[in-house]
Write a structure and sequence with these properties.
- The complex is a heterodimer of chains A (282) and B (406).
- Chain A folds into two domains: 2-216, Rossmann fold (3-Layer(aba) Sandwich), CATH 3.40.50; 224-282, no CATH class.
- Chain A is 30% helix and 24% strand.
- Chain A has helices spanning 32-49, 69-78, 94-104, 125-133, 194-202, 213-216, 239-247, 263-276; strands at 2-3, 11-17, 57-64, 82-87, 110-114, 136-151, 156-163, 169-174, 178-182, 206-209.
- In chain A, strands 1, 2, 3, 4, 5, 6, 7, 8, 9 and 10 form a ten-stranded mixed sheet that branches.
- The radius of gyration of chain A is 23 Å and the shape is elongated.
- Chain A starts with a strand and ends in a 6-residue tail after the last helix.
- Chain B is α+β, with helices and mostly antiparallel strands and 406 residues long.
- Chain B folds into three domains: 2-40 and 64-150 and 260-336, FAD/NAD(P)-binding domain (3-Layer(bba) Sandwich), CATH 3.50.50.60; 152-255, 2-Layer Sandwich (D-Amino Acid Oxidase, Chain A, domain 2), CATH 3.30.9.90; 346-405, no CATH class.
- Chain B has 13 helices and 19 strands.
- The chains are: A alpha/beta (282), B alpha+beta (406).
- Chains A and B meet through helix 5 of A and loops of B.
Chain lengths: 282, 406
């Protein structure tokens, strides 16, 4: 529900994936998309605060070892108000990363993430995070703006443009709380001023405990294998018929179907199809 | 405050050579236990190349492979990062990804800091120590170079390929073990361009390249990578590098002319050190630079601290810098060897003597029975004439050599 009343203050969370790909902290850091996320947050904050006395607070959160604090200091130098490091391995599965981030991002209106990290780049954390926060999600965005409308709680409504396959675009109106993920091309992170850079060297970085060691190692990473499907014995009078039935050789195979459904029904249909095809538990 | 242009100290450095770190003894005893080097040089070879010949003087000592060591190959991103960490531990504030664009001056025109490329990036300082490399914009802006000192003829361009090979292959090819390494300096092998070649062993890479005098390089049509390709294809070099994968290609200017191209090292509020002060020693058999850079940086820091304590950062107040340089190897070696770079890069040393030496050696060891062995003097005389070296030239160069290296 939107009104035209501007909130006194808003909070934007920015989630960074700190990556140490080469095992060398000198070359560790965050992806261009993560940097674009912070600059997007600055841009949203500037729009919200324009002509008002309010100040939108930006909190940057990263999960990783102490070495990740250098990247967070870079965020503070660029203008973030607060930096939080979650003390945990940077190699946790996406759902656990999202759960830890959600704990750290209490009561934020918007969360902006990069849509890929510098290592695996699956872009899955923002979606998990939206689920954890029970927030709307708009992922893979290439343009974000605020139009001045706010929710009854005072949170800003966001207009976003999302890249689709085939050169198509999708325009979204996103009502907070929401998780947004942006492409790296959206913005270039501003260059920190020298005084800010020097101040950030001494700035305090809040450190939160991450998942316990047992939780961190609860899952074993293994290659994805679809579940086996039960295939009924082929029917046919002769061996050739049975082979044809088994391989569907010569048969006209229909590839997929087009259905038009509302989003909840569409999601249910997708899940049903995945169960039918053996990708999910029946 | 320590300004670094790259994202970390050493990230922008291009270097292929041997680091001689003994200057660190006074600050970090047992530095060798932690310094991130590749290999300790225990074999030093000087090679003379012609198109089809190679003569090598090879020296090996195990003494250079144990404390306090002598020289080492190193990756500068590792080495400089380590050094910067030492500076930070001693209280320096390292600001990375920040370039000094120019000098700040006070109302009286005296240098009073630097302007950087960051927003609000002016740094006001009582003393600026310019270590901004071979093309020192700060030293040039301060008008510290004299006429002709920055002429192209005073510079070479060093071009290097880093070639990956397994460590055991390098050990076997170069006859070394563990952290032992080899430094091969080459006279010739530059396709007729005045300069030289080099080949250094890192742990699991080789640094192979050439150093080419700028005007000579510009006066001929071939590109540096073509000259390196020929060097690598030479019969004396190919077996050492074959099968490797090029993992890096880089190039860098080198201030090659030594003392004669050094700028004024001190002015009101500013000192110049390292390559910015042209402190690279390119004296033929001695090829050094990092040790001069480290030492001049140390002495500049000490002199600046003294001047700040005394409250006088004018050129007179900073005079301790040049006094320290003059009392130590930094200027003494450069003074002693001030004629060496010109001699080493001269046409006769570059082109005529290598051919003469190689031909002499080839004939001395050629057995042409039933003809008896020719006399050594006769071979030298004939090959000297064949190489087009007059007796007067020989005498002049011998005298220049004695004066340069004696």
């Amino acid at each position: 529900m939107s009104t035209d009343v501007r909130a006194a203050t808003s909070t934007i969370g920015v989630c960074w994936k700190w990556v140490d790909v080469e095992g060398d902290p000198r070359r560790a850091g965050v992806s261009a998309a993560d940097q674009a996320a912070l600059e997007t947050a600055f841009s949203i904050a500037a729009s919200l605060d324009a002509g008002t006395d309010s100040s939108t607070e930006i909190t940057v959160v990263a999960l990783g070892p102490v070495a990740a604090e250098q990247a967070l200091r870079g965020a503070l130098a660029a203008g973030a108000h607060r930096a939080i490091r979650i003390d945990a391995s940077a190699h946790l599965p996406s759902d656990r990363v999202a759960a830890a981030l959600a704990d750290a991002l209490d009561r934020v209106d918007l969360v902006v993430c990069g849509d890929y990290s510098a290592d695996r780049g699956s872009g899955s954390v923002p979606a998990f995070l939206a689920a954890e926060l029970d927030a709307a999600q708009a992922l893979g965005l290439i343009q974000i703006s605020v139009d001045g409308r706010v929710t009854a709680e005072g949170a800003p409504v966001v207009r976003a443009l999302r890249r689709l396959d085939g050169g198509r675009r999708e325009q979204l109106t996103v009502t907070p709380p929401a998780v947004l993920s942006v492409e790296g091309s959206v913005a270039t992170l501003r260059r920190a001023s020298l005084p800010a850079e020097l101040l950030a060297k001494q700035a305090a970085i809040a450190v939160l405990p991450g998942p316990s060691a047992a939780e961190q190692h609860a899952d074993t990473i293994r290659p994805f294998r679809p579940r086996p499907r039960v295939v009924p014995a082929p029917v046919g009078a002769g061996a050739l018929d049975r082979i044809r039935a088994l391989t569907e050789a010569g048969a006209t195979v229909s590839h997929g179907e087009t259905v038009t459904l509302d989003p909840p029904e569409a999601a249910a249909r997708i899940l049903a199809a995945l169960r039918e095809w053996g990708y999910l538990e029946p | 405050m320590l300004l670094e242009r790259g994202p970390f100290a050493g990230s922008k450095n291009m270097y292929g050579g041997v680091v001689y770190p003994r200057i660190l003894d006074q600050f970090h005893p047992n530095w060798w236990e932690e310094v991130p080097i590749q290999r300790w040089i225990t074999r030093r070879s000087t090679m003379v190349l012609t198109a089809t010949q190679a003569m090598t003087v090879d020296f090996r000592t195990q003494a250079w492979g144990e404390p306090p060591y002598n020289g080492a190959t190193a990756y500068r991103p590792d080495f400089d990062h380590w050094l910067a960490g030492k500076a930070e531990a001693d209280g320096a504030v390292l600001v990375t990804s920040t370039t000094a664009l120019g000098l700040l001056r006070d109302e009286a025109g005296r240098i009073a800091g630097v302007r950087t490329d960051r927003p609000d990036g002016d740094i006001h300082a009582d003393v600026v120590i310019a270590c901004d490399g071979v093309n020192s914009f700060l030293a040039k802006e301060a008008d510290l170079f004299g006429p002709g000192q920055t002429e192209a003829g005073n510079y070479t361009v060093g071009v290097k390929e880093t070639i990956a090979l397994p460590k055991d292959v390098i050990d076997e090819r170069f006859g070394v073990r563990d952290r032992e390494g080899v430094d091969i300096e080459i006279l010739g092998g530059t396709g007729g361009v005045n300069g030289g070649g080099f080949l250094y062993t890192n742990l699991d890479t080789l640094a192979v390249g050439v150093v080419l005098k700028l005007p000579a390089l510009g006066a001929q049509p071939r590109r540096p990578e073509e000259i390196i390709a020929d060097l690598k294809a030479h019969a004396a070099i190919a077996p050492l590098v074959e099968g490797g994968t090029i993992v890096e290609y880089s190039a860098h200017l080198i201030p090659e002319a030594g003392r004669s191209m050094m700028p004024r090292l001190t002015t009101d509020g500013m000192l110049v050190a390292g390559d910015a002060a042209a402190m690279c020693l390119a004296a033929g058999i001695w090829l050094e630079g990092v040790n001069f850079a480290m030492a001049s940086g140390i002495y500049a820091g000490e002199a600046a601290a003294d001047a700040l304590r005394a409250g006088d950062t004018s050129a007179a107040g900073l005079a301790g810098y040049e006094r320290r340089l003059g009392d130590t190897f930094v200027l003494r070696d450069h003074e002693k060897l001030r004629r060496a770079p010109g001699l080493v890069l001269s046409d006769r040393v570059q082109h005529h003597y290598p051919q003469m030496i190689a031909n002499v050696v080839e004939r001395v060891f050629r057995v042409e029975n039933p003809r008896p062995k020719p006399g050594f003097r006769r071979i030298v005389r004939e090959e000297r004439k064949r190489a087009g070296i007059g007796l007067r030239d020989l005498a002049r160069d011998a005298w220049a050599g004695i004066r340069s290296f004696g």
